[in-house]
Amino acid sequence: MHHVDETLLARAQSDGPPAVRQDARYAVGTLEQANAIVCTCSTLGLLMDGFDIPHLLCIDRPAFEAEVSYGPRIMLVICLASTKDASEQLLHDCMGSNQITPTTVICADAWPAFEAGDTNTFHTMIANDIRQAAAQQPFDAVILAEASMAGAAAMLADLGILVLATPAIAMQAAHAIAQGQTDR
After folding, report:
1. Can you give the pLDDT at residue 54?
2. 44 and 29 within one domain
3. Is residue 103 very low, low, confident or very high in pLDDT (cuts 50, 70, 90)?
4. Sheet architecture: strand order including 162-165
5. What is the residue range of 72's domain?
6. pTM, 2 dp
7. Residue 35 pLDDT more than 60?
8. Does residue 18 fall inside a structural domain?
9. Which of 151, 18, 177, 184 is nearest to 86 (CA)?
10. Could you say which DSSP state residue 104 is in?
11. Which of 1, 107, 145, 163 is the most exposed place for a label (fewest CB within 10 A)?
């Protein structure tokens, strides 16, 4: 089952994630009988974590948890300004005792291409921004924080830096949750 409510993101962007808490909780509540629930919105991720539902997983958490083990110099890549605080906070939460030095790269110019349905241009612009940032300083790993960015990973296969995208890692974690092998 796939439930989309684009108004939640729009309202969270304009009024902040706390403004959609009640509606987001209601949306999750309609899915609580599922074996696993994956929230694909990075902007709402920390809000969803606050619901304390063991089988609710925010799409970016598993990748962020994996990312911090690859080295101290992490490039956190986002497109939406509304995702910045939530993504940086999640990365900080996932650091644990790991000493990492994250650098946030914002690919704001790419988002209009995504909204227009031009995913090739969207992913190309993200890949170009990542290459530009990687040319300026060394990184051990790159994380594409928003699920929509995953297509850029294949364009960076020759970068020589690990690039993690959130969807595949989250689906593996959701499968484990659904099978009762773990909780988030």
Report:
1. 87
2. yes
3. very high
4. 101-106, 73-78, 141-144, 162-165
5. 62-168
6. 0.85
7. yes
8. yes
9. 18
10. E
11. 1
Residue type, 56: L
**Predicted pLDDT of residue 183:** 57
> Strands 73-78, 141-144: parallel, antiparallel or unpaired by DSSP?
parallel
Alpha-carbon separation of residue 31 from 9, 21, 68, 90, 183 (angstroms): 18, 16, 31, 24, 16
Confidence of residue 49 (pLDDT cuts 50, 70, 90): confident
What is d(CA 121, CA 108) in angstroms, rounded to the nearest whole number? 13
The predicted pLDDT at position 141 comes to 94
Instruction: Give 179 or 182, the one with higher predicted confidence.
Output: 179
Q: Write down the pLDDT at residue 184.
A: 55
Q: Which secondary structure element, helix H or strand E, spans residue 93, and what is its range?
A: helix 81-95
State residue 59 phi and psi, 5-degree precision: -55, -30
| Distance from C-alpha of 178 to C-alpha of 120, rounded to nearest angstrom | 33
In a domain, 175, yes or no: no
CA distance 27 to 33: 12
- The alpha carbon torsion through 5, 154, 60, 77 (nearest 10 deg) reads -100
6-15 vs 21-29: helix crossing angle, rounded to 10:
160
Q: Rounded to 5, what percent of the chain is helix, strand, coil?
A: 55, 15, 30
> How many structural domains comprise the chain?
2
Same domain, 93 and 155: yes
How many residues can be counted in the chain? 184
